[in-house]
Amino acid sequence: MRRIIICALIFCGLLAAVAFQQQGELAAGEGKGGSGWAPAVKPKPLGDETLKGVKWLIAHQHQNGGWGQGEESQNMGGGGELAGVPNVADTCIATLALMRAGSTPSDGPYAKNIARAISFVVSEVDASDPDSLYVTSVRGTRVQSKLGPYIDTFLSSMVLAEAQGQMPDDASKKRVSAALDKVLRKIQKNQRADGTWDDNGWAPALSQSMATKGLNRAVQSGAEVDEETLKRAEKHAVSQYDSSSGSFKSEGSAGVSLYATAATTSAMQDSMNTNAAKEKELREVASNSKDEKKRDQARNELGRIAGTRKAQEESRQTLVRQLDDDSFVKGFGSNGGEEFLSYMNISETLVVQGGPEWKSWDQGMSQNLSRIQNADGSWSGHHCITGRTFCTAAALLVLTADRAPVPVAARVRD
User: Fold this and answer.
1) Which CATH number is correct for 2-407, 2.70.98.10, 1.20.58.220, 1.50.10.20, 3.90.1150.10?
2) What is the domain partition of the chain in residue ranges?
3) CA–CA separation, 94 vs 17, rounded Å?
4) What is the pLDDT of residues 182-227, one digit of tens each?
């Protein structure tokens, strides 16, 4: 009898290990470059709030696979005519939320919904011109007016990067990879010398953070991204934090400290996630290459990475100190899509290191989002970005940040 019990316990342990591995693969996936992604911490089970939110998103997906911005606050003027028009930005953030909930375009309970959404995004990208930064003909959405006119482009780089290695067949993989390459060419071609893309919108700093995240997620997935484009985006993020005063620059953040802090720390974190995957090879070249020029180049790169790491760690400490300040966490003063997106940025920054600071923030956010969730499973905004699609999807990305993709160079922590 004792032998049977021991065997059963071993078997259960094996099942748990396999389940966790599969959970990580579904949450993050593996890029075509073969480097792979995994959650930075052991993901918690999906809660009722998350499942209700996902159900709401599924119910509001359009037949063509896209999402519109959905119902807005009655206080918002204009934009109502676009509520039911599918657009790229809302579709991308909704798709990312479904992927974090445990599905890919080829596997999981929401696979068909994700595949349809990806097809919609790719169709929009395919129809766009080759040179401008636009990837859609839909103009004037609430998200564009608040985050900037190219937010669709930056969010599409994120979702296509995560999806390209997980499509159900070779034809769809090639289609997604081609669309991602087109988006990346647009981003690279239109980047300005200072590492930015655009100053339009109410809080373009948040759009800038999505651009930097998108570039880094793309290179982490194995896509070809121009090194100088990456470095300029990283340098700009570093420049937004003043280590001498321990403060973040407010440009492009509508004067809201939450937006500036979340955008900067998140952009630096994603840059460091990419850098971490390069360091081992760079150290090998710096120490052992017979080519002096290559050794010098590797040492210079390691020096640049060390500088970014220092700035990222200092900015992260400043962020953590501010999390006890309710006025900081409230952002503009009431919840809008900008707040939910900033919370996602903060969560994806803190989760990489894990530990008590991450756990405290995650627990507090989970309780807050549960408290303000609508009875139908959605979340609403009360200023600026008030569309239920964006707010619901961004809230879900906060709740599932422990499933966000991080290169395997960052080890899974308990």
Assistant:
1) 1.50.10.20
2) 2-407
3) 29
4) 999 999 999 999 999 999 999 999 999 999 999 999 999 999 999 9
